[in-house]
Amino acid sequence: MAKRIHWRRRTFPPCLGERTSTGSFPLPLQHPMRRSVILASVVAAASWAAVPALGAQSQPRVLTAADYARAERFLGFNTQPLVSNTGVQPSWLPDGRFTYRVRQADGGQPVVLVNAKGAKTNCVSVPSACPVESPRPTPRNRTRAPEVLSPDGTKAAFVRDWNLWVRDVATNAETQVTTDGVKDYGYATDNAGWVHSDRAVLLWSPDSKKIATFQQDQRKTGEMYLVRYKVGHPELLQWKYPLPGDSTISMIERVVVDLSGTAPRVVRFRMAPDEHRSSVCDHIACGGKLADTEWYPDGSQVAFLSNSRDHKVATLRVANANSGDVRDVLREEVATQFESGDGDQNWRVLPASNEVIWFSERDDWGQLYLYDLTTGTLKNTITTGEGTVLDIQRIDAKTRTIWFVAAGKEKGRDPYFRHLYRVGMDGKGLTLLTPEDGDHNVSLSPTGTHFVDSWSRPDLPQTAVLRDAKSGKLISTLEQGNISKLLATGWKPPTRISVKDRDGKWDLHGLMWTPTNLDSTKKYPIVNYIYPGPQGGSVGSRQFAASTRDNQALAELGFIVVAIDGTGNPTRSKSFHDAYYGRMGDNTLPDQIAGMKQLAQRYAFIDLDKVGIWGHSGGGFATAGALFRYPDFFKVGIAESGNHDNRNYEDDWGERYHGLLTRNGSTDNYDAEANQTFAKNLKGKLLLAHGTLDDNVPPDNTYLVVDALIKAGKDFDLLMIPNAAHGFGAATNYMMRRRWDYFVQHLLGATPPKEYQIGPK
């Protein structure tokens, strides 16, 4: 699905739903959110408590601009400035001190210096006590291509004309280090179809003398086409975009570029080309770097994973950086899809002790294992029990200690809450270092002696503290989030909810937003916000947020809004994640229905006769599927930018979570998951929306559904946004208003104000 950047983290990942394009041609950007002044004339609107049944009123209710303005107060550009003392992100100094900026109530963000004992110095008040900020050299070259700086900051690598170049940062002298790159067969090129840019995909060696990268062969890869509309002749946009079932996909030929001699030298790995795959994300570039790749500390060898096209086989290999000779270390094959971590690989090579830390979900949870780096034999299990390792933070080879982030290990808590742990490589001495019941965002010092922990929950603002890295003991409290101004507006946090899945097997967790003036004796339509995964979830981050999308704003218009993380999303058990592997049309919809039915039993104010649903990207796919597969339950849906047929969405996502496309006569194993297959079942109101320059989820995904609806003689609504990318760019607020209008009119049974404009006033 179109992917989302993972909540840690994602994305997630394409954001099914929230990634904007980094395409090689300019696309509209997201409209920046700015602080707005809430007009004094906007007063509390009339209560939305009385919500009559659809069609029950002789004269439909009319919502005014003041009603929309009241809802708008709960959007991020209004709420975020009301939160202070948050946003602590440490910038570490080599000696273990760090600086951070803190957002204050007056809007200022002073720099604070903190030592290892927690003593703070305000750098505005005492500038002489603080280090002078030395900005990294600004990457630049004649083509303005994004550059990747070497670890020592002296060199910058970039792509020009399909070849790799290196710039001397001090002199700006440029050197072409590869010469045989040509169109569609270039070095370090960033193109996975759904994402494409002119940045370089590579990994510098620790000594800044070598570059690990690849030459990507896309000469036989299929093309994607979009049209930019303008006065006069339209502009045809074309790039490589492989699809599931293509006989040829993009391949990478791994190389090392050695800059240590008098002239650059390209060392090709002595192996067959790898499929353009990683075990971490839907690209060979994850988190801004070459995925599944790790240098030996001395730069002599490169460890990497070769991943099969269907993601079922991962092979750990080591290449000699001088000769290109490759040896296999270990291999893991799974029945569905292999992952090596969440956002970054969790395997690490330890050449000094001739070991490798390996990540596997073989016992149904993501665990760490210790292997011999030469023989590939298992030495011991490092982590056990429930809970999944998400991220290795630090390895101390001398004390043979690992610090890692995991979720789901603390019973009785939200299984998506992240905690930091310490454990020995022998699997002994597991220690919880972040005890509070919340989601912990941590950053360890370069010395490994202490760490910053910024923790919160959706219903509790951030607290930033300094802790001892061995024991987790509190050293000092850095900042305590202040939401007093936010609360003064009438804001309230969402309600944390837990329900059972469709089979009563797993606990599902989510959030519920209700009107701030909720009248529990009345009935309210319910709107299900959905992002089904399998690379993300509906809730997203478990950290505190003053606004999450427009959920509270929509609730203010007279709805109950819920987001439920159903089965099929990551960071829990392998079986949970694979719940509907190969059946992507499931989209966790049976879980959503089961969850809302349980909520309606608990909360009498939920009206299950009026259920709406909306989502973006993967959520758009799920929304249309909801109206088609469960037409008697879901009455109104808004499907934005949906990947409705994954035969028309990038190859890596579908082949990872659905398997390789296999044909059976005139059909195939993807056909039954495509939304247009079920479009004839539509009964309710459906709005389809898509940007015409969506280079993540191409708009033909929506056109396929439109065609099926027309052939079935169905009434529906369609909004195509000209020259807009996946996230709608400057039309984001317009789409939000149209979404409000649609639910108000068709689910609430009211008349919305005409052409209300959302945005800072």
Descriptive notes:
The structure is a single chain. This protein has 761 residues and is mainly beta. It has a domain at 61-80 and 487-751: 3-Layer(aba) Sandwich (Rossmann fold), CATH 3.40.50. 12% of the residues lie in helices and 31% in strands. The protein contains 10 helices and 48 strands. An 8-stranded mixed sheet has the order 38-39-41-40-42-43-46-47, with helices on both faces. Strands 10, 13, 14, 17, 18 and 19 form a 6-stranded antiparallel sheet that branches. The chain is globular and about 85 Å long. Mean pLDDT is 91; it is low at 1-57 and 136-143.
Could you write a compact summary of the structure shown?
The chain has 761 residues and is mostly beta strands. The protein is built from ten helices and 48 strands. Helices cover 12% and strands 31% of the residues.
Task: List its traits.
single chain, 761 residues, mainly beta, Rossmann fold, eight-stranded mixed sheet, six-stranded antiparallel sheet, 48 strands, disordered N terminus
Secondary structure topology:
Layout: E1 61-62, H1 65-72, H2 76-79, E2 91-92, E3 98-101, E4 111-114, E5 120-122, E6 148-149, E7 155-160, E8 163-168, E9 174-176, E10 185-187, E11 190-191, E12 196-197, E13 203-204, E14 210-217, E15 223-228, E16 235-240, E17 251-258, E18 265-268, E19 274-275, E20 285-286, E21 289-290, E22 293-295, E23 301-307, E24 313-320, E25 326-333, E26 348-350, E27 355-360, E28 367-372, E29 378-381, E30 388-396, E31 401-407, E32 418-424, E33 431-432, E34 439-444, E35 450-457, E36 460-468, E37 474-480, H3 484-488, E38 495-500, E39 507-513, E40 524-529, H4 551-556, E41 560-565, H5 574-577, H6 589-602, E42 606-616, H7 618-629, E43 636-640, H8 651-657, E44 663-664, E45 667-668, E46 685-691, H9 700-711, E47 717-721, H10 732-748, E48 750-751
Parallel strand pairs: 1-48, 40-41, 40-42, 42-43, 43-46, 46-47
Antiparallel strand pairs: 2-3, 3-4, 4-5, 6-7, 7-8, 8-9, 10-14, 11-12, 13-14, 14-17, 15-16, 17-18, 17-19, 20-21, 22-23, 23-24, 24-25, 26-27, 27-28, 28-29, 30-31, 31-32, 32-33, 34-35, 35-36, 36-37, 38-39, 39-41, 44-45
